[in-house]
Amino acid sequence: MKYTTLFALGMLVSARVCGQSIDDAMQNPKNFYYVDFKKYPIEDKTLPVGVFDSGTGGLTVLNAIVNFDKFVNQTGKSTPDGKPDFAKEKFIYLADQANMPYGNYAAAGKTDLLQEHILKDVQFLLGNKYYQTGKSAGYETNKERLKVLVIACNTATAYGQSKIEEYLQKVGLPIKVIGVIDAGSRGALQTFAKDESGSIGIFATAGAVSSQGYDRAIRRFQAELGFTGQIQLFGQGGVGLAEAIDEDPNFINRTAQAPRESYRGPNVSNPNLLIDKQLLKIYNFDYNQQKMLCDAAKVDDCSQLQINSAENYVRYHLVTLLEKMRQTPSVLPLKTLILGCTHYPYMAEPIEKVLAELRNYEENNQPRYRHLLAPKITLVDPAVNTARELYDYLYTSKSFNNGADMATQSEFYISVPNALNGNIKTEADGRFTYDYKYGRSANELQEYVKFVPFSKQNISEDVADRLRKQIPNTFELIKQFGQNNKTLFLDTSALKH
């Protein structure tokens, strides 16, 4: 890959453009996010498919696309042929890791800032610029554009899809936008017979749950598709789970030996995220290897109790969900659980394990939750349905690329704090502080982050090992990209096997 480093950006590294909307400010040719839409290659079907998320969780959506095989590639016949249906497509993936998790902006009263991040993500994908590192003064200009956009983030879909579509219409780009919420909602309903009743659990970020995006989509499709049974909806905002999966130190620290002041997850004193000591036996937390942090020798004596593993976050949130259902009159059994955050499919096995435990949990020889759980609970990963929607769109619009190589031509970018912006505030490990991340205001329009290629400098070994094990085909694409652009995503010999 050849690089052409241009002039150093200066205008928006630390400057503020107060009073302007983000799309107005982006009309400045000196802005990193500027795109000349008059010269955009609108009808070029050889362009990549753009996919973005607030972190690495969206790679589960890309992985579903990469592995999608429902049709004969040459004829479009609805039969798997052993060849990936998107093998001749290329992809650009963006993880806005520096600003994640998106699910917490709503609770902080910063949905306008969240939407600004989302529009910046889109503008980056539409453009041709990126940086080599967070310290780079100049940017490269050989990133490809995109022909269709997949929002691989439930929170971004809930709060941003309509904004993105409005923006694209304003600038005159007829680019299709596919969000995971509609796909996941249809997938959840498809687990029901047309006249069947039951409950659907929406296990998502707090932001996605509070937006009620899934509730509205499910009710809309329920009417449109003719589902006549009674369907109850229960949301559970999984605060801390996506963060734990991505090793956010505000929610997990594998080296910690005792409770931490910086911890922001569930605890025994926060009524909004309460670890109920009366439910400790039911949570059945794993205390080995500091996976729970307590300030006393015995758990019953803890004045502080902090979750310190992704698996224990799963336990906390599933028990909380079932307790919520247990307090609901005339509740219907949980038949389907939507994994409404792209990180959560990584935890599908622990989720199934904990649900089985809770089905069998007894008090005084009586099951506590069995009446709340259908004999078989289907986990719905919206990624699979999203892949199908992408296929249908490319097929009907005759937009398939027949000459690319997914394995060697896909690109992967991640956001890191902009080291040249003197206004940002970071922790010792280089991440934004929590207060700074959620304390910023919209329309300041600073260049808070720089979008750089995936590399071993910005993806931890633990995260890389998880990707290698759980999404191996997409992991190989990332490795190939690292070899192509000489960022060396990681040294696989260093991984634990």
Description:
33% of the residues lie in helices and 14% in strands. It has 497 residues and is of the alpha/beta class. It folds into 2 domains: 22-180 and 384-494, Rossmann fold; 184-381, Rossmann fold (3-Layer(aba) Sandwich), CATH 3.40.50. A 6-stranded mixed β-sheet has the order 4-3-1-2-13-14, sandwiched between helices. α10 (310-326) crosses α11 and α15 packs across α16 (472-485). The chain is globular and about 70 Å long. It starts with 21 loop residues before the first helix and ends in a 12-residue tail after the last helix. 46% of the residues are buried. The model is unreliable at 1-20 and 491-497 (pLDDT under 50).
How many helical elements?
16
CATH topology of the largest domain: Rossmann fold
Distance between the termini: 31 Å
Number of strands: 14
The H-and-E topology, N to C, reads as HEHEHEHEHEHHEHHEEHEHEEEHHEHEHH
Structural class category? alpha/beta
CATH architecture of the largest domain: 3-Layer(aba) Sandwich
As for the number of domains, it is 2
From the alpha-carbon coordinates, what is the Rg to the nearest angstrom?
23 Å
Q: State the helicity in percent bands.
A: 25-40%
Which range does the strand content fall in? 5-15%
Strands across the major sheet, in which order? 4-3-1-2-13-14
Largest sheet: 6 strands, mixed
- What is the molecular shape? globular
Record the SSE blueprint.
Blueprint: H1 22-25, E1 49-53, H2 59-66, E2 91-95, H3 111-126, E3 148-151, H4 154-171, E4 176-179, H5 180-189, E5 198-204, H6 206-211, H7 213-224, E6 231-237, H8 241-245, H9 280-283, E7 292-294, E8 305-307, H10 310-326, E9 334-340, H11 348-360, E10 362-363, E11 366-367, E12 373-380, H12 382-396, H13 406-409, E13 411-417, H14 434-439, E14 449-453, H15 461-470, H16 472-485
Parallel strand pairs: 1-2, 1-3, 2-13, 3-4, 5-6, 5-9, 9-12
Antiparallel strand pairs: 7-8, 10-11, 13-14
Helix pairs in contact: 2-12, 3-4, 5-7, 5-12, 10-11, 15-16
